[in-house]
Design goal:
The structure holds two protein chains of two kinds.
Chain A (H helix, E strand, L loop, with lengths): L2 H24 L5 H27 L7 H19 L8 H18 L14 H36 L12 H32 L9 H22 L4 H25 L5
Helix pairs in contact in A: 1-2, 1-4, 2-3, 3-4, 3-5, 5-6, 5-8, 6-7, 6-8, 7-8
Chain B lengths: L1 E8 L5 H7 L3 H13 L5 E6 L3 E8 L2 H14 L8 H4 L1 E4 H12 L11 H15 L5 H20 L9 H13 L6 E5 L3 H12 L4 E6 L2 H11 L2 E4 L3 H4 L5 E4 L10 H10 L5 E5 L16 E5 H11 L1 H4 L2 H24 L10
Parallel strand pairs in B: 5-6, 5-8, 6-7, 8-9, 9-10
Antiparallel strand pairs in B: 1-3, 1-4, 2-3
Classes of the chains: A mainly alpha, B alpha/beta.
């Protein structure tokens, strides 16, 4: 079977998970979260199968084009969810994650972005580390945004004194705030290491000032946006709803500009 | 002789109106004495709680009594709401007795089946009895009502589950803070409601409980009972920075917690979540506080919606209760009718 089909199956399974999430939201069948978890786990395994097969074929980390970047981001998101979603009250995080994974997956499958890039010389340890770490960070940022959306939903109910049937299924807003912060901070640390490894790799390759192209400036902007989120949290002026909103805004910026910036950057292509 | 009940409750009147109409104990006493002195009522009990203000009376002229009692309510309002006619209810004879039993059993409460109202009705009756404004008929009616209340509480599932105002408050606090073991609670006011709330939060293993009250003796007594920290009323704002939950149930006619006060408090707290539970009528906490980021403010009316959901299970017990209540109303009705034939009520104590 072609490796891409594994990703297709994974996307279909994530779509099923979206349907199961709707059942969870009714609050009538809370046991559905177990089935949902298994479906997400299967989908994750199919994603992993794709990445393994593609990696073997390429002989390097499968991050050579936009399609693979899509798969890697959604794989990271699913992995983080599976790691955290075992806590019962975080089961609904899947409901906030799966739809986004499906949208990204369908886009990746439909758009002509799985382009075979010319094989280059082995990029070296730091360059090899740069791309996966950056994409893993995007996955963490995506999950921070998803958890931020949960926070907004929970906060809306508490503020407006109108509790839906799924109110009790969500974690407390205190816990959600902590999770948003941890995911954003974790992503920020990984992203920082990714950035640093990219700069080291560029230096080793003797790229000089060519490294400071649009993608590098964009990355520094993303780094600054998350630095603001973390600093604001520590200083106390970016807590609760504001923090959740910034996590969503930051990631929306990342996801909307990533493709354009990638295509404009000769160095990163 | 006719039994009459005129009043309003949380289902018909919002907290803005209830807080204007609420009676303090001395005000209730004055009203009862006035109504009896003017011969509008032969006997009178005034029930004034956070959720209802009702006057129960015995009269020889129901039309005049209805009119006078209605005016008593209207006189307490500076502005008459357009829908006042719909807000006020009047029950007579069997319907009045049935209503009293419903109220006492918590069947008409905001939190369906709650038991706090039983004590409040009992207090209202005992105050009236001590004040000399009850006699044979209301004595009998209230005693039988209390019997009915006890029976229903024991023999049905009407009080099962956690649907009291205090437990609903705890449940909301858990949705904000998660585990309450690291939370500190400040209770402003040392009355019955505060005591119940203290118990509910202590049962969740909160870290520290602070109690403050205008009368420091009451705060100290309550603090001693719960191994809590008593705080002088003028200093409560200073310790509020260290608390996560503020419960207020004072009888203050003005806001105890204001918007500017909380804005400053949130700076001290670095905008960490703060949960306000306003159990007082008139309200103690400026509702605008809810508009401040990371502040959540719930008053009695807000809790009604949540309590309504939790009480769905208890609603299933209504049918059992109604059968028993109908039986009690019939017994009392028969007794009152027999009493009329024998020549009206006399001053005596009901066994």
């Amino acid at each position: 079977m072609e490796d891409k089909n594994y990703f297709l199956i994974a996307t279909v399974l994530f779509a099923i998970s979206v349907g199961l999430s709707f059942i969870l939201f009714t609050g009538k069948k809370p046991e559905t979260h177990r089935v949902n978890y298994v479906v997400m786990l299967l989908a994750f395994l199919f994603q992993t199968a794709f990445l393994v097969l593609r990696g073997e074929a390429l002989g390097r980390c499968p991050l050579t084009n936009l399609f693979e970047a899509h798969v890697f981001i959604t794989w990271t998101m699913a992995g983080i969810y599976l790691g955290m979603g075992t806590a019962y009250r975080l089961s609904l995080l899947g409901a906030f994650t799966a739809p986004f994974i499906v949208i990204l997956g369908v886009f990746a499958l439909v758009a002509p972005i799985d382009v075979t890039m010319p094989i280059r010389a082995a990029p070296g340890f730091w360059a090899e580390l740069h791309a996966p770490l950056s994409v893993i960070a995007y996955g963490a940022f995506a999950m921070a945004a998803g958890t931020g959306a949960m926070f907004i939903a929970q906060e809306y109910q508490l503020k407006h004194h109108h509790l839906f049937s799924w109110f009790q299924l969500l974690p407390s807003i205190n816990e959600l705030e902590k999770i948003v912060f941890r995911l954003a901070t974790g992503g920020f640390v990984v992203f920082s290491i990714g950035l640093a490894s990219g700069l080291i790799a560029a230096s080793q390759m003797g790229m000089g000032s060519r490294i400071f192209d649009i993608k590098t400036f964009w990355s520094l902007l993303v780094w600054a946006l998350y630095a603001i989120l973390i600093t604001g949290h520590f200083m106390g002026w970016l807590r609760g709803k504001r923090q959740a909103l910034l996590a969503i805004i930051n990631f929306t910026f990342v996801i909307l500009t990533f493709w354009g910036v990638y295509l404009l950057s000769e160095v990163h292509q | 002789m006719n039994i009459v009940c005129v009043g309003l409750n949380h289902q018909r009147a919002p907290v803005e109106i209830r807080e204007k109409l609420a009676f303090t104990s001395p005000q209730a006493q004055t009203l009862r004495e006035k109504l009896c002195a003017q011969d509008v009522l032969k006997e009178a009990v005034v029930l004034s709680t956070c959720n209802r203000i009702e006057i129960y009376g015995v009269t020889q002229s129901p039309d005049a009594a209805r009119q006078t009692l209605r005016e008593e309510f209207l006189n307490r309002l500076t502005m008459w709401p357009d829908s006042f006619e719909n807000i006020l209810y009047v029950h007579e004879e069997n319907r009045a007795i049935e209503h009293l039993i419903h109220v006492t059993c918590g069947l008409d409460s905001m939190v369906f089946g709650e038991t706090e109202i039983f004590g409040q009705v009992k207090d209202a009756y005992e105050e009236a009895s001590r004040g000399g404004t009850t006699s044979k008929i209301l004595n009998r009616v209230f005693q039988k009502t209390f019997q009915a209340g006890k029976f229903i509480r024991t023999h049905t599932a009407i009080t099962r589950g956690t649907v009291s105002v205090a437990s609903v408050s705890v449940s909301l606090a858990e949705q904000i803070f998660g585990n309450l073991e690291a939370s500190n609670v400040l209770v402003i006011g040392a009355g019955d409601t505060s005591e119940k709330t203290c118990r509910a939060f202590l049962a969740e293993g909160i870290q520290q409980l602070f109690i403050t009250n205008r009368s420091p003796e009451k705060a100290q007594a309550l603090a001693k009972e719960f191994q809590a920290t008593s705080v002088p009323f003028e200093d409560w704002a200073a310790c509020a920075g260290a608390v996560d939950i503020i419960v207020s149930s004072t009888s203050s006619p003005e806001y105890v917690v204001t918007h500017p006060m909380v804005t400053e408090l949130m700076k001290l707290r670095k905008n960490k979540p703060l949960f306000f539970i306003d159990l007082a009528v008139p309200r103690d906490i400026d509702p605008e506080v809810n508009s401040i980021d990371n502040c959540y403010c719930y008053n009695m009316d807000n809790l009604q919606v949540i309590a309504g959901e939790y009480s769905a299970l208890r609603q299933q017990e209504i049918a059992k209760c109604e059968v028993y209540i109908a039986q009690k109303v019939a017994e009392l009705s028969e007794w009152i009718a027999r009493n009329r034939i024998q020549g009206g009520p006399q001053e005596n104590h009901v066994p």
